[in-house]
Protein backbone atom coordinates (compact mmCIF):
# COMPACT_ATOMS: atom_id res chain seq x y z
CA UNK A 1 0.00 0.00 0.00
CA UNK A 2 1.07 3.56 -0.61
CA UNK A 3 1.30 5.97 2.31
CA UNK A 4 -1.88 7.71 1.15
CA UNK A 5 -3.72 4.37 1.18
CA UNK A 6 -2.30 3.50 4.59
CA UNK A 7 -3.40 6.87 5.97
CA UNK A 8 -6.86 6.36 4.50
CA UNK A 9 -7.10 2.89 6.06
CA UNK A 10 -5.85 4.28 9.36
CA UNK A 11 -8.61 6.88 9.36
CA UNK A 12 -11.24 4.17 8.66
CA UNK A 13 -9.88 1.89 11.39
CA UNK A 14 -9.55 4.77 13.83
CA UNK A 15 -13.17 5.77 13.25
CA UNK A 16 -14.37 2.18 13.74
CA UNK A 17 -12.23 1.72 16.88
CA UNK A 18 -13.57 4.92 18.45
CA UNK A 19 -17.13 3.93 17.50
CA UNK A 20 -16.71 0.59 19.30
CA UNK A 21 -15.13 2.33 22.30
CA UNK A 22 -18.16 4.60 22.37
CA UNK A 23 -20.57 1.65 22.00
CA UNK A 24 -18.83 -0.10 24.89
CA UNK A 25 -18.96 3.04 27.01
CA UNK A 26 -22.64 3.61 26.24
CA UNK A 27 -23.46 0.04 27.24
CA UNK A 28 -21.48 0.14 30.50
CA UNK A 29 -22.02 3.73 31.63
CA UNK A 30 -25.41 4.60 30.15
CA UNK A 31 -27.35 1.49 29.17
CA UNK A 32 -26.36 -0.75 32.05
CA UNK A 33 -27.11 1.76 34.85
CA UNK A 34 -30.48 2.64 33.32
CA UNK A 35 -31.53 -0.97 32.75
CA UNK A 36 -30.33 -1.89 36.24
CA UNK A 37 -32.31 1.06 37.59
CA UNK A 38 -35.44 -0.13 35.79
CA UNK A 39 -34.95 -3.61 37.21
CA UNK A 40 -34.37 -2.25 40.72
CA UNK A 41 -37.44 -0.02 40.75
CA UNK A 42 -39.74 -2.57 39.10
CA UNK A 43 -38.52 -5.77 40.77
CA UNK A 44 -35.66 -4.97 43.13
CA UNK A 45 -37.91 -3.26 45.69
CA UNK A 46 -39.80 -6.52 46.16
CA UNK A 47 -36.55 -8.50 46.30
CA UNK A 48 -35.38 -6.25 49.13
CA UNK A 49 -38.55 -7.01 51.10
CA UNK A 50 -38.12 -10.71 50.37
CA UNK A 51 -34.52 -10.59 51.56
CA UNK A 52 -35.49 -8.73 54.74
CA UNK A 53 -38.03 -11.43 55.58
CA UNK A 54 -35.59 -14.20 54.68
CA UNK A 55 -33.04 -12.78 57.12
CA UNK A 56 -35.64 -12.47 59.87
CA UNK A 57 -36.76 -16.06 59.31
CA UNK A 58 -33.16 -17.32 59.36
CA UNK A 59 -32.56 -15.41 62.59
CA UNK A 60 -35.69 -16.85 64.23
CA UNK A 61 -34.87 -20.42 63.18
CA UNK A 62 -31.36 -20.04 64.58
CA UNK A 63 -32.74 -18.45 67.74
CA UNK A 64 -35.08 -21.40 68.30
CA UNK A 65 -32.23 -23.83 67.67
CA UNK A 66 -30.05 -22.14 70.29
CA UNK A 67 -32.88 -21.91 72.84
CA UNK A 68 -33.72 -25.60 72.40
CA UNK A 69 -30.08 -26.46 73.04
CA UNK A 70 -30.00 -24.30 76.18
CA UNK A 71 -33.21 -25.89 77.46
CA UNK A 72 -31.95 -29.43 76.84
CA UNK A 73 -28.78 -28.59 78.77
CA UNK A 74 -30.76 -26.75 81.48
CA UNK A 75 -28.82 -23.54 80.88
CA UNK A 76 -30.05 -19.97 81.39
CA UNK A 77 -31.38 -18.03 78.41
CA UNK A 78 -30.26 -14.53 77.49
CA UNK A 79 -31.92 -13.13 74.38
CA UNK A 80 -29.30 -10.38 74.15
CA UNK A 81 -26.51 -12.96 74.10
CA UNK A 82 -28.38 -15.06 71.53
CA UNK A 83 -29.05 -11.99 69.34
CA UNK A 84 -25.34 -11.13 69.43
CA UNK A 85 -24.42 -14.62 68.23
CA UNK A 86 -27.00 -14.54 65.45
CA UNK A 87 -25.95 -11.05 64.33
CA UNK A 88 -22.42 -12.32 63.80
CA UNK A 89 -23.60 -15.38 61.90
CA UNK A 90 -25.90 -13.38 59.60
CA UNK A 91 -23.52 -10.47 58.99
CA UNK A 92 -23.02 -11.41 55.33
CA UNK A 93 -26.78 -11.48 54.73
CA UNK A 94 -27.16 -8.07 56.40
CA UNK A 95 -24.40 -6.67 54.19
CA UNK A 96 -26.14 -8.01 51.09
CA UNK A 97 -29.38 -6.42 52.26
CA UNK A 98 -27.69 -3.04 52.74
CA UNK A 99 -26.24 -3.27 49.24
CA UNK A 100 -29.64 -4.13 47.76
CA UNK A 101 -31.29 -1.21 49.55
CA UNK A 102 -28.52 1.16 48.39
CA UNK A 103 -28.95 -0.08 44.81
CA UNK A 104 -32.68 0.61 44.85
CA UNK A 105 -32.14 4.12 46.24
CA UNK A 106 -29.44 4.82 43.65
CA UNK A 107 -31.79 3.58 40.92
CA UNK A 108 -34.52 5.98 42.02
CA UNK A 109 -32.02 8.86 42.01
CA UNK A 110 -30.69 7.95 38.56
CA UNK A 111 -34.15 7.75 37.02
CA UNK A 112 -35.04 11.10 38.55
CA UNK A 113 -32.00 12.84 37.06
CA UNK A 114 -31.63 11.53 33.52
CA UNK A 115 -30.12 13.71 30.80
CA UNK A 116 -32.28 14.29 27.75
CA UNK A 117 -31.49 11.88 24.87
CA UNK A 118 -30.41 14.86 22.74
CA UNK A 119 -27.92 16.10 25.34
CA UNK A 120 -26.52 12.62 25.88
CA UNK A 121 -26.08 12.08 22.14
CA UNK A 122 -24.34 15.44 21.70
CA UNK A 123 -22.02 14.71 24.62
CA UNK A 124 -20.98 11.37 23.08
CA UNK A 125 -20.51 12.94 19.63
CA UNK A 126 -18.07 15.52 20.96
CA UNK A 127 -16.25 12.87 22.97
CA UNK A 128 -15.87 10.62 19.90
CA UNK A 129 -14.32 13.50 17.97
CA UNK A 130 -11.82 14.17 20.74
CA UNK A 131 -11.09 10.48 21.29
CA UNK A 132 -10.01 10.09 17.65
CA UNK A 133 -7.26 12.60 18.33
CA UNK A 134 -6.38 11.88 21.93
CA UNK A 135 -7.10 8.24 22.82
CA UNK A 136 -3.75 6.60 23.75
CA UNK A 137 -4.68 3.33 22.01
CA UNK A 138 -4.87 5.19 18.71
CA UNK A 139 -2.16 7.78 19.32
CA UNK A 140 0.69 6.26 21.36
CA UNK A 141 3.03 9.14 20.40
CA UNK A 142 1.05 11.72 22.35
CA UNK A 143 3.02 14.45 24.07
CA UNK A 144 2.74 14.92 27.83
CA UNK A 145 0.51 17.93 27.23
CA UNK A 146 -1.80 15.92 24.99
CA UNK A 147 -1.96 13.10 27.54
CA UNK A 148 -2.95 15.61 30.24
CA UNK A 149 -5.59 17.01 27.85
CA UNK A 150 -6.97 13.48 27.37
CA UNK A 151 -7.38 13.11 31.14
CA UNK A 152 -9.28 16.41 31.24
CA UNK A 153 -11.51 15.27 28.37
CA UNK A 154 -12.24 11.95 30.12
CA UNK A 155 -13.05 13.71 33.39
CA UNK A 156 -15.45 16.14 31.68
CA UNK A 157 -17.12 13.29 29.78
CA UNK A 158 -17.49 11.04 32.82
CA UNK A 159 -19.11 13.86 34.78
CA UNK A 160 -21.42 14.73 31.89
CA UNK A 161 -20.00 18.27 31.69
CA UNK A 162 -20.70 19.11 28.04
CA UNK A 163 -19.87 22.81 28.43
CA UNK A 164 -16.38 21.94 29.70
CA UNK A 165 -15.94 19.37 26.92
CA UNK A 166 -16.79 22.00 24.30
CA UNK A 167 -14.45 24.49 25.97
CA UNK A 168 -11.58 22.00 25.90
CA UNK A 169 -12.23 21.36 22.21
CA UNK A 170 -11.92 25.09 21.45
CA UNK A 171 -9.15 26.02 23.89
CA UNK A 172 -6.82 23.20 22.85
CA UNK A 173 -7.36 23.34 19.11
CA UNK A 174 -3.61 23.59 18.50
CA UNK A 175 -2.81 20.54 20.63
CA UNK A 176 -5.56 18.56 18.89
CA UNK A 177 -4.21 19.51 15.48
CA UNK A 178 -0.80 18.33 16.65
CA UNK A 179 -2.05 14.73 16.98
CA UNK A 180 -2.97 14.67 13.30
CA UNK A 181 0.45 16.07 12.42
CA UNK A 182 2.07 13.18 14.31
CA UNK A 183 0.14 10.65 12.24
CA UNK A 184 1.21 12.31 8.99
CA UNK A 185 4.86 11.98 10.03
CA UNK A 186 4.70 8.19 10.55
CA UNK A 187 6.56 6.00 8.05
CA UNK A 188 4.73 3.46 5.90
CA UNK A 189 6.02 0.65 8.12
CA UNK A 190 4.82 2.43 11.26
CA UNK A 191 1.43 3.10 9.70
CA UNK A 192 1.03 -0.52 8.65
CA UNK A 193 1.86 -1.68 12.17
CA UNK A 194 -0.57 0.86 13.63
CA UNK A 195 -3.29 -0.35 11.28
CA UNK A 196 -2.69 -3.98 12.25
CA UNK A 197 -2.88 -3.08 15.96
CA UNK A 198 -6.13 -1.17 15.44
CA UNK A 199 -7.64 -4.00 13.39
CA UNK A 200 -6.85 -6.46 16.20
CA UNK A 201 -8.16 -4.01 18.79
CA UNK A 202 -11.44 -3.77 16.88
CA UNK A 203 -11.84 -7.56 17.08
CA UNK A 204 -11.21 -7.52 20.85
CA UNK A 205 -13.67 -4.66 21.44
CA UNK A 206 -16.35 -6.32 19.32
CA UNK A 207 -15.96 -9.51 21.37
CA UNK A 208 -16.12 -7.57 24.65
CA UNK A 209 -19.30 -5.80 23.54
CA UNK A 210 -20.87 -9.12 22.57
CA UNK A 211 -20.08 -10.49 26.05
CA UNK A 212 -21.51 -7.39 27.75
CA UNK A 213 -24.77 -7.85 25.86
CA UNK A 214 -24.99 -11.45 27.08
CA UNK A 215 -24.64 -10.48 30.76
CA UNK A 216 -27.12 -8.95 33.23
CA UNK A 217 -29.02 -6.68 32.78
CA UNK A 218 -28.82 -6.82 28.97
CA UNK A 219 -29.78 -10.50 28.96
CA UNK A 220 -33.22 -9.49 30.29
CA UNK A 221 -33.53 -6.16 28.47
CA UNK A 222 -36.65 -7.17 26.54
CA UNK A 223 -38.27 -8.77 29.58
CA UNK A 224 -37.73 -5.78 31.89
CA UNK A 225 -39.54 -3.62 29.32
CA UNK A 226 -42.40 -6.14 29.16
CA UNK A 227 -45.06 -5.22 31.74
CA UNK A 228 -46.57 -8.71 31.65
CA UNK A 229 -43.21 -10.36 32.40
CA UNK A 230 -42.55 -7.86 35.20
CA UNK A 231 -45.97 -8.59 36.71
CA UNK A 232 -45.38 -12.35 36.61
CA UNK A 233 -42.01 -11.90 38.29
CA UNK A 234 -43.30 -9.54 40.99
CA UNK A 235 -46.34 -11.75 41.62
CA UNK A 236 -43.98 -14.67 42.19
CA UNK A 237 -41.86 -12.67 44.63
CA UNK A 238 -44.92 -11.36 46.47
CA UNK A 239 -46.18 -14.92 46.80
CA UNK A 240 -42.86 -15.84 48.43
CA UNK A 241 -43.15 -12.79 50.68
CA UNK A 242 -46.60 -13.86 51.84
CA UNK A 243 -45.35 -17.37 52.59
CA UNK A 244 -42.36 -15.99 54.50
CA UNK A 245 -44.63 -13.75 56.59
CA UNK A 246 -46.79 -16.71 57.56
CA UNK A 247 -43.70 -18.77 58.40
CA UNK A 248 -42.24 -15.88 60.40
CA UNK A 249 -45.46 -15.70 62.45
CA UNK A 250 -45.30 -19.44 63.15
CA UNK A 251 -41.67 -19.19 64.25
CA UNK A 252 -42.46 -16.26 66.57
CA UNK A 253 -45.19 -18.33 68.24
CA UNK A 254 -42.85 -21.32 68.51
CA UNK A 255 -40.13 -19.18 70.10
CA UNK A 256 -42.56 -17.61 72.59
CA UNK A 257 -43.90 -21.06 73.51
CA UNK A 258 -40.38 -22.28 74.19
CA UNK A 259 -39.60 -19.31 76.41
CA UNK A 260 -42.91 -19.49 78.27
CA UNK A 261 -42.64 -23.24 78.67
CA UNK A 262 -39.21 -22.92 80.20
CA UNK A 263 -40.57 -21.80 83.55
CA UNK A 264 -42.00 -18.64 82.05
CA UNK A 265 -38.76 -16.81 82.74
CA UNK A 266 -35.68 -15.71 80.84
CA UNK A 267 -32.82 -16.18 83.34
CA UNK A 268 -29.68 -14.31 82.37
CA UNK A 269 -26.42 -16.04 81.57
CA UNK A 270 -23.84 -15.78 84.28
β content, as a range? under 5%
- What value does the Rg take, in angstroms? 29 Å
Q: What gross morphology would you assign?
A: elongated
Quaternary organization: single chain
* Major pleated sheet: none
Total domains: 1
How widely separated are the two ends? 89 Å
Q: Structural class, from secondary structure content?
A: mainly alpha
Number of strands: 0
H and E string = HHHHHHHHHH
Helix content: over 70%
Number of helices: 10
Question: What can you tell me about this protein's structure?
Answer:
α1 runs antiparallel to α2, α1 crosses α3 (91-112) and α1 packs parallel to α10 (227-261). The chain is mainly alpha-helical and 270 residues long. It has helices at residues 3-72, 79-89, 91-112, 117-134, 144-158, 162-171, 173-184, 188-214, 221-224, 227-261. The chain has one domain. It is elongated, with a radius of gyration of 29 Å.
Question: Quick gist of this model?
Answer:
The chain has one domain (3-261). 83% of the residues lie in helices and 0% in strands.
For this entry, give a set of tags.
disordered C terminus, elongated
